[in-house]
Structures are given as structure tokens and as C-alpha cells.
TrEMBL record:
Top-level EC class as recorded in UniProt: transferase
Species classification: Bacteria, Pseudomonadati, Pseudomonadota, Betaproteobacteria, Burkholderiales
One CC-aspect GO term: cytosol
CDD domains reported for this sequence: MoeA
Native source organism of the sequence: Noviherbaspirillum sedimenti
This protein's name: Molybdopterin molybdenumtransferase
Family statement: Belongs to the MoeA family.
Coiled-coil regions, chain positions: none
Residue ranges crossing the lipid bilayer per the database entry: none
GO molecular function: metal ion binding; molybdopterin molybdotransferase activity
Pfam family, one: MoeA_N
Length: 428
């Protein structure tokens, strides 16, 4: 069970109203309930991409392992440079990356050096070869004031120091992190086990791909958006298909999901329709709250914990409308899944951007409108809405490259007003 039960968390909230729950309150309840799942595994470095680091990584070595040159040129003693005077230095040897200069460099001498080569003993400065005035195999002349002591030298441990933390537990490993771990010589990485998420769509009208579309039916699209969002998040998925609006079938599906997964995500059947048995069965199997969240889209939602045969799992009963399922996944399920995965990722950053045209918005609810972020003729960022915003219009999500988040207390937006925007795609 979680640190605190759902009923306990809810009882601590003042002004809790399941019929008009502000987004922030619902997010807070969920955050307080979920905790990271236990279990870790060691993976080969490449397989760890996108996984959550299970332990702090302390650097076993200095990177770089030795002071080295940042330029192809000449390594010298900074003390040989005198202000306003050119310097004439004897070349006493060569240093390559992987094959340094063995001796000590005395006053008046220098070493021909390549980028990455260890700094020869006695040298602390490198002058790039294109800056020298005259050079033969035996000597070089440097113009006055071309370098200062310490220039063009990379210090031992300046990237990562032996014994200091290189990456902290909870980090979702990105390409730079794989490179960083490789630079420490680490072939294996401890990562948290994948979170197991079972999901299904509820509804008699739903048809799976490959089935004929009978009158009044729709193809099940929610299982595909959920598949995409869960795979992107790095979850282990258990796709349970479409479940009919039949109490026995729903109970069997929820029990099986509960016995095989950490989290269950369903879509449909959480509103007030007569065929919406899902709510009833969910309530029978555990501690589940049914909310009407003050938001659009994504108003009805169920959250709680259900149990079956000694196993229990968190449950997100998302609304059936295709845009509502995505919005409620991103703003409620995703942060909870990340927390259960042990990920310490900071909340996604919002951008403040000018609205290109007016946006209609009702007060007393948070609206998540789908937007297209672009630039005006002077290169300033601007955002416009992707046409009709109905929660059944999945095209509005597909065309968008961002979400425009209009806060609870705000009303309509005028052209040019700043609005908060969450980008769909990041660089990394
Ligand atoms: N009287 C009320 N009616 C409705 C309310 C309300 O508060 N009072 N809320 C509306 C809102 S908002 C939403 S969202 C929906 C959510 O209802 P359900 O979660 O019970 O969803 P369904 O009724 O099963 O489906 C709604 C809609 O979405 C289509 N759908 C469902 N699943 C899928 C799927 N997997 N793939 C594609 N499309 C799907 C379904 O055919 C319906 O058209 O309730 C409103 N009603
Ligand atoms: O939650 Mo519903 O999607 O607002 O229509």
C-alpha cells in the first residue's frame, strides 16, 4: 500500500469537492498517494537509454585523467612569457594524444603538442600553431601578448572529479548521460525496473483494427494514443484490448490487470451514462474516487487503488473522449507514473508566448487548448489554436505542437496577450 491511503489524503483537504475539483488539488492528491516501486536491474549501457538510474553514480576516475592540450600548437612554461616581449623557444620534442612527451621541459624550451595530448611536465600553457610568428623544427617565435599563462590547457578532472557524484539516482538517462557514463568506463548501469502498466478501452461501440465498423461504432483510438504515450515514457505495457460494457467482463479485466501490473489505465465509462458500469465495478474492487475535475477537456476521471487476490494496483479511469484521454494522461497519469518509476525529473517548463488571435475560455476551469507555436515576421514566438477544440476532435492533438494552458481563474484571451504553452517535443 502507499504511504497514505487515498481516503486519508482526501480527508486532509479543505474544500474538497469531487463534483468540481480544481486540477491542482487532484494533482496534489495523486502526488501524495503514489510512491516509487521497488526493484532494479543492471543493464548494458546502451540498453539504459531512457531508463531511470537506481543509484547515485560516483565518478571512479578523473575525466580528463590528466591535464591536456585543448589545441594543436606548442606547450610551454607560462613563466617564459614576458609582457610586451616576443618569446623565442627551443622545441625539445613532440606530444600526441595517447603518446605524451616523456621528459621535463626546462626554461626556454617548448614541445610541439596536439589536441588531447597530456601536458608535458613543466608546461602549463599552449599557444595554438596559427598564432606563432615563425617556426622551424627546432625553434618557435611567439608574438607578444598572444597567450596568458594557463591558456588552452584542460585540467585533470575538470569534467568529472574522482569521488564526486557524476549522476544522481532518479535521473532519466539521456544521450549525454550515456556518453558521460562511457567516459567513466562504465559498461553497466543500475536502473529501476520498468513500471508495468495494463490498459484497456471500455465500450460496446468500440471496434478494434481489422474489424468491420458496424453502424454506430467507432474504431478504438484510445488504445493507440495510450500505447504511444506509455511507450514514450518507458513503461512495460500490457495491452488488454477492448472490454465490453458488461459487469462480469469489466470485473475480470480489472482483476487480471490488477494481478499483473503496478498501474491500470482505462478509458471510457467514467461518466454518468447508463452503460457506464466501469465506475460501479471499480468502486467494488477498492478505494476509488470519482471526480469531476474543473477542466476541459478531461472532466470525469477516476483515481484510486484496487485489489484482487492479494495484489493491488493504482487505477486511472480516464474519460472516453479521445482528446480527454490524452490530456488527462499528460496532466494526471504521467507525473504519477514518473514518480512510481522513481524518476526525479523536474516538471516540464512552460513558455510564455503571445496569443496570435483571441482565445475563448470559460472561467472556473483550467483549459488545455491545442496550439501551434510559430514565429511572427519579426521572429517573435506566437501561438494559435488548432481550430475546433471539441474533446472528440483528435485531429486537434495531431496537428498541434504544443498545449496552451489557460489557468482556472482566467477568462478569455485577447490577441497579443501572453499565454502559457507546453511544448510537445523537446530537443532531447
Ligand atoms: N450527462 C453528462 N454527460 C457527459 C458528461 C457529464 O458530465 N454529464 N461528461 C462528458 C464528458 S466531459 C466526457 S469526456 C465523456 C466521458 O464519458 P465516459 O468516460 O463515460 O466515456 P464514454 O461515454 O465511454 O465515451 C465518450 C466518447 O468517447 C468515445 N470513445 C470512448 N472510448 C473510445 C476509444 N477507445 N476510442 C475512440 N473513441 C472512444 C465514445 O464513443 C464516446 O463518443 O462523457 C460526457 N458526457
Ligand atoms: O472531459 Mo470531456 O473531454 O471535457 O468532453
Amino acid at each position: 500500500m502507499s504511504p497514505s491511503s487515498l481516503a486519508e489524503v482526501v480527508s486532509c483537504l479543505s474544500g474538497y469537492d469531487p463534483e468540481a475539483l480544481p486540477v491542482e488539488q487532484a494533482q496534489q492528491i495523486i502526488r501524495q498517494c503514489v510512491a516509487p516501486v521497488t526493484g532494479m536491474e543492471r543493464l548494458a549501457l546502451r540498453s539504459a537509454l531512457g531508463r531511470v538510474l537506481a543509484e547515485d553514480i560516483v565518478s571512479p576516475i578523473n575525466v580528463p585523467a590528466h591535464d591536456n592540450s585543448a589545441m594543436d600548437g606548442y606547450a610551454l612554461r607560462g613563466a617564459d612569457l614576458s609582457a610586451g616581449q616576443p618569446a623565442h623557444l627551443r622545441i625539445v620534442g613532440k606530444a600526441f594524444a595517447g603518446a605524451g612527451f616523456a621528459g621535463r621541459v626546462e626554461a626556454g624550451a617548448c614541445v610541439r603538442i596536439m589536441t588531447g595530448a597530456p601536458m608535458p611536465d613543466g608546461c602549463d600553457t599552449v599557444v595554438p600553431q596559427e598564432c606563432v610568428q615563425a617556426a622551424t623544427d627546432a625553434a618557435v617565435t611567439l608574438p607578444a601578448g598572444i597567450v596568458k599563462m594557463g591558456d588552452n590547457r584542460r585540467l585533470q578532472g575538470e569534467d568529472l572529479r574522482a569521488g564526486s557524484p557524476a549522476l544522481l539516482a532518479g535521473r532519466t538517462l539521456r544521450p549525454a548521460d550515456l556518453g558521460l557514463l562511457a567516459s567513466l568506463g562504465m559498461a553497466e548501469v543500475p536502473v529501476r525496473r520498468r513500471l508495468r502498466v495494463a490498459f484497456f478501452s471500455a465500450g460496446d461501440e468500440l471496434r478494434s483494427l481489422g474489424e468491420p465498423l458496424a453502424p454506430g461504432c467507432v474504431y478504438d483510438s484510445n488504445r493507440y494514443t495510450l500505447y504511444g504515450m506509455l511507450v514514450r515514457l518507458g513503461c512495460e505495457i500490457l495491452d488488454m484490448g477492448v472490454v465490453r460494457d458488461d459487469p462480469a467482463a469489466l470485473e475480470a479485466a480489472l482483476r487480471s490487470a490488477c494481478e499483473n501490473a503496478d498501474v491500470i489505465i482505462t478509458s471510457g465509462g467514467v461518466s454518468v451514462g447508463e452503460a457506464d458500469y466501469t465506475k460501479e465495478i471499480m468502486a467494488q474492487l477498492g478505494d476509488v474516487q470519482f471526480w469531476k475535475i474543473a477542466m476541459r477537456p478531461g472532466r470525469p476521471m477516476a483515481f484510486g487503488r484496487i485489489a484482487s487476490n492479494g495484489r493491488s494496483a493504482w487505477l486511472f479511469g480516464l474519460p472516453g473522449n479521445p482528446v480527454a484521454v490524452m490530456v488527462s494522461f499528460y496532466f494526471f497519469a504521467r507525473p504519477a507514473l514518473l514518480s512510481m518509476m522513481g524518476a526525479s525529473d523536474a516538471p516540464l517548463p512552460l513558455l510564455r508566448v503571445a496569443a496570435q488571435s483571441p482565445i475563448r475560455k470559460k472561467p472556473d476551469r483550467t483549459e488545455y487548448q491545442r496550439g501551434i507555436l510559430s514565429h511572427d515576421s519579426e521572429g517573435r514566438p506566437q501561438v494559435r489554436i488548432t481550430g475546433a477544440q471539441g474533446s472528440g476532435i483528435l485531429r486537434s492533438m495531431s496537428e498541434a505542437n504544443c498545449m496552451v494552458i489557460l489557468p482556472h481563474d482566467h477568462g478569455s484571451v485577447q490577441a497579443g496577450d501572453p499565454v502559457d504553452v507546453l511544448l510537445f517535443e523537446g530537443l532531447i
